[in-house]
Every structure is written in C-alpha cells, then in structure tokens.
C-alpha cells in the first residue's frame, strides 16, 4: 500500500504526456496523493491552507493561479500575438533575447516577474510564436508542431537563464547571502557586494552567448519558412 502513495507521480506523467494543463495536473496529483494516503479531502485543503499562510512564496503562487486562468480565458494569448504582430521588425530570436535582457535586469532589481506558469506560458510563448507567424505571414496551423514545441522550450530556457544568472546580481539575493555565509564559515572574507559585482561578467557573457543562439534560431526558421512567405 505504501507504493500506492506514489500514484501522484503517475498522474503527473500521464497528464504531461496527454498535454493537459500543467497547473491542473500538478494540483490533481497533489489531491490524489493525499486521498490515497488516507487523508480526508478537508485535511488536504487544511494542508494547502496552512501552506498558504506559512509560506509567502506559495501563497503568492496560488494567488496568481486564478488570475492566469482568467487572462488566458479572456484572450491574453490572442492579444499578445496581435501586439507583437504590429512590430514588423521583431523576430522570434530577437524577442527571446529581449526577454532574457529584461529578466536579467529584473534580477538586478530583485523584481520577480512571475516565472513559467504566470508569465512565460501565457505571454512570452504566444508572443514568440506570433512574431514567427507575422514575419513569414503564416497561419498558426502552418507552423510545424516540432517548431511550436521548440519555441516553447526556448521561451522557458530564457526564463531559466535570466533567473539563474540574473538573481545573483542583487546583493540581497538569497543565493548571494548563502555564499557569503559559506565563505565566511571557511574563513574566506568576502561580502555581498563583491559577489554581486563578480556576477555581472557572467550575466553579460550569458546574454551574448544566448543572443547568438537566438540568431541561429532565427536563421533556422528563415530557411524553413521563407519559401512559405514567398508562396503566399
């Protein structure tokens, strides 16, 4: 019976394979795991409520769920696609690089934009796909499924790069303070300002390398979809 408590993992795997909504799959897995573990439904709600009160980050995340659902329901993806379509010179790669720059600057100011479910999925991803459709005058169904998935992955990667290499630019970031404490425990004298300054070259190098990668993505998309634009 103990193995039955791992059914939540199976729910997540099946949900992802069937491409159901990510947030819904994770919440369903949590509820199912609680039920098979002998918890009453109201106990599960109590645990979620306690986490809501005790953990500020979890609370903020849960507060964004209804908002994300509502803005997607009322056409955020469509409006973001239309908006990016008005910028004729914008390409998918340029938009990805721009988001990476914004993400690193947000890290420098310790501003949390929202992450994958709250920002990348409902906003950045459709904007990047919209840039591709506008550039080559494509209809959504003319974009190969493989490239749709590739764009999703690239948009998520920009969030990962920006968060990982940009968060240490802020002297009060948890990672910076952790490193300061670790170094001091080893009798290595360093302060948060020094670590933040040392993180700047890494963030710049990351921006340059990823920008080159995004240029290569634009060239790949140009080779593949340029002929479709010529035929239209």
Question: How would you describe this structure in keywords?
Answer:
about 230 residues; mainly alpha
Tally of alpha and pi helices: 10
Q: What kind of assembly state do the chains in view correspond to?
A: single chain
- Tell how many strands the DSSP assignment holds: 0
Strand content: under 5%
**Biggest sheet details:** none
Assign an overall shape.
flat
Low-pLDDT segments: none
Write down the overall mean pLDDT. Answer: 81
Order of helices and strands: HHHHHHHHHH
Number of domains: 2
SSE inventory with pairings:
Elements: H1 7-17, H2 22-36, H3 41-54, H4 56-73, H5 76-85, H6 92-108, H7 116-135, H8 145-166, H9 174-185, H10 192-231
Q: Could you walk me through the main structural features you see in this protein, from its secondary elements to its overall organization?
A:
The protein has helices spanning 7-17, 22-36, 41-54, 56-73, 76-85, 92-108, 116-135, 145-166, 174-185, 192-231. With 232 residues, the protein is mainly alpha-helical. It folds into two domains: 3-54, no CATH class; 76-231, no CATH class. Helix 3 crosses helix 4 (56-73), helix 5 packs across helix 7 and helix 6 (92-108) packs antiparallel against helix 10 (192-231). It is flat, with a radius of gyration of 21 Å. 22% of the residues are buried.
